Amino acid sequence: MRWACLILLMILLTPSTGWGQEKGASPGGAGAPPAAPSPQDLQAGKRIYQKWCMNCHGAQGDGAGPAADFLRPRPRDFRQGLFKIRTTQSGQLPSDQDLFNVITKGMPGTGMPGWEKVLTEAERWQLVSYLKTFSRRFARASAPPEPIRIGTQLPLSADSAAEGKRLFREIECFKCHGDEGRGDGPSAPELTDDWGAPIRPANLRKPWTFRGGHTPEALYLRLQSGIAGSPMPSFADSLDNEKTWHLVNYVMSLWQDSSGNNPPLQVVLKARRVEGEIPAQPGEAFWQDQEPFYYPLVGQVIREPRLFVPSVDGVQVQAVYNDRELALRLVWDDPTNSKADAEQGTFEDAAAIEFPVQVPPGAKRPFFLMGDAELAVQLLRWGSSSGMTELNGNGLDKLQPQSESSQESTAVGEFQNGQYQVVMKRPLRTVNTAQDIQFETGRFIPVAFFAWDGSNGETGGKMALTSWFYFFIEPALPKVTYVYPALAVVIAGGLQWWVVRRLRQTKMD
Amino acid sequence: MRPRLSLFSASVLTVVLAYLFIQVVIPYASMWIADRPSPVTVPAALTVIYMLLVFIGLYIYITISEENVREFLQPILEFLRGGETGVRAGLRLGLLALVPLLVGWITYDRLAPKVQSLTGIRIQHPTIPGQYEKLINPYRNPTDDLVKQFQQQEGLDGIGLEEARKRLVGTALAEGRALYQKNCRVCHGSKADGSGPMAVGFRLRPANFRDPGTIATVVEAYAFWRISEGGRGLPNESSPWDSAMPRWKEELTEAEIWKIILAEYELADVEPRKPEKLE
Predict the structure, then answer these.
(1) Alpha-carbon distance A45 to B21, whole Å?
(2) Which of A26, A467, A477 has the CB atom closest to B112's CB atom?
(3) Chain B, nearest residue to A22 by Cα
(4) May I ask the CATH class of domain A27-140?
(5) In chain B, whose CA is at the least distance from the CA of A25?
């Protein structure tokens, strides 16, 4: 009877979830490809291709569709039969399942989305069959490609990662991927793919952008099979099973979050109050203890000149304040330390934080892209050549540095191993109230972020950005925050004591 | 007869099991059933309701008879009235000390200022301005005049009017798809699902056209207005300052915009709302 209650409850509880939702293909795609595609399959595949794929990959599969110029990496040219993400041995064609998996899951960090939700499993197989018609290599192949056998996995350990780090130098991974893995190696700027287009080595500290996913097995396969069409070779000859796992473990040891997922986005950037001096050097240990907030950056695609292939894809921000000033530490990855040079036609690297000049009392605020004619924004901008500048904007083309006397912000910036670290400081309140935001605690202040990678041709309106998020300067805690809980403890304790005492007195009843 | 669980222990067990069921079993079952990559947590409000149901059920069951109430209370009373020394006394003292501290902590947690994201009220579909209201997409059901013009341009005099109409729509759709992938894809996504590569940087996420609450609820003239005027054309209650939508009338022709709209609905696999017959 008692248990009947429980069972009844369980029945009551069940309908809360996703019952009745469509059950898609299991990850990786169960089922097998049709043994030999029928002409109908190829026709169907072609129709799907023309609707969804052609405008990037080209009607002839040459990777030169009308949208191709807006993508980096460029869409794949299928005619050579070279595919990045394979489970097959070096130099061989991908398996049908490999092609199916990329179509299903997409390729993180590129313009290729996963098609699981739009195309049925059967349609994705038809597409695989059709894709294979673009390269004669598939028809000529006499035997199916040989899969790579993944040997016994070595678990991630400090020793294994250290051995991987040694191999990272020995087989010269650092030449492209950089000393600390941020894709900033000495060869990185000159790399091109098999079609002559510039290509970037992976930033090994951003596993969520790995094209073939970031499972240990995926990393193992990339090392063994290479990434066809790119400068990433197969290391099957120099790395046995054990060494491959050591390298995989080293790469995984570089990740901030062991899951390899992108840092969660937080809408509100909080500034904590600290007592005393705030360290101006971005490398100080003090900054390791401050809460980091992460904001993904995207290309400025709103107005000409647009930037479809931004270089900086995210910025980490930390904020603290004391009784005098506000300090913000920005950290972002950029593969090269570029400087402004008018003769060479190169631009500096930079990052900026944007605030409205007047903190809006209501919802209304300036346009996030450098303000508008009616409402102005203020920018705190640090450049690798120009240093710290305060600017005001009333639109993308109406951005002006403030006068010399009004420049009250300071900054210290460093570049090391493919990463910028900058600490900016500004007094909470300034004299120039017409052009400077006055920081107050306890208010939601709109904030946006910008970054320019000079070596990627980014300058002026060509930049990576976010739209408005919120900045909140935490007020010191009011006294009631401590008084009321203390009171609550006393009252609860007293009541309890009284109840228990009465109970114990009536023990004899 | 096998020893039966005391009413008190059974109640505690029921509460614990129900909670575990909501927090663990349902999320994982949902993940498996809906084929999601991660467990689907039950919303906090729903958890409260479910747990409330459990407590109400238990209360009714316990208070069904005097005897039940007595049986339920007995272990509690025994515990509280226990001896002055020994393990049980220590346990009792610890538990009794814990309760006021818990109350204090909850009070502090309630009082300490928390930064929560602001959810402003934003009108998603403001009223369409008059000059856009009556426009219709010339490429959805092209008029005979437009078809004849197309025939002349393409030198298709040999084929019938209906065949030419079909070809005109087909051409417009193909052009629209290409224009969409060139201009709209970066934010609204190749699949028209609002998750293009640039979508993550904008707090006001680009519209997901596959969501039945977006283009499927508006007439094509509405889409034409939004594309033509962009974010800047929004009234203040729809937060134009947060919108990354360009003002496309500065860069695309009207014909191109209509073709994009034709393709947008097709790619999103939804139908536009039919304009209401006025007068």
Answers:
(1) 45
(2) A477
(3) B34
(4) mainly alpha
(5) B35
